[in-house]
Specification:
Length: 172
């Protein structure tokens, strides 16, 4: 009798876990777009910014809203030699290099020699709080996916263009 009771409890726990996983997967589907999103390369609309990066970059939002809670995807286009000073994010950052070479370095100090070249087709994911910097080699486009609200926190506040009165502030 005790054996059947234990088996019953185990089956209940497994079915409860399966139901929770199914509900979680359903919630993920419900968080996506209401209709199909398709962006042929020539139809992506670029705009200056975001304001959390130095002037010269352009971006486009493909899905979601980086300023709100939830999943989003955006692209950032940078000219040759463009630098993103050491910073960190409070959420996991997942990037794919679509064109050009994105030189990625880790740490609190901008060290171009220590930056790893990531050519088009490269993918990387960084944990919460990892200090890093980047340099574009050739015109470079990256695609960034994360969970918002998206924030960029510069290691040195003087590197933050949003805090400089000589630059217009824009969307994060």
């Amino acid at each position: 009798m005790k054996r059947y009771l234990l088996m019953g409890v185990a089956l209940w726990a497994l079915s409860a876990g399966a139901l929770e996983a199914q509900e979680s997967a359903h919630a993920m589907r419900d968080d996506g777009p209401e209709e199909s999103l398709i962006y042929p390369p020539g139809e992506v609309e670029w705009q200056p910014g975001p304001g959390s990066l130095e002037p010269g970059a352009e971006f486009t939002i493909l899905e979601g809203d980086p300023g709100k809670a939830g999943f989003f995807t955006m692209r950032i286009r940078m000219p040759d030699g463009y630098v993103i000073n050491p910073h960190w994010h409070p959420a996991v950052e997942r990037l794919t290099v679509l064109s050009g070479t994105f030189r990625l370095g880790h740490g609190d100090i901008l060290d171009p020699e220590a930056a790893q070249p990531l050519p088009a087709g490269s993918y990387f994911s960084m944990p919460v709080g990892m200090r890093h910097f980047a340099i574009a080699e050739g015109e470079t486009v990256i695609q960034l996916s994360s969970i918002g609200p998206w924030e960029i926190n510069y290691v040195n506040p003087e590197d933050d263009p949003r805090l400089r009165p000589d630059l217009p502030s824009g969307q994060d």
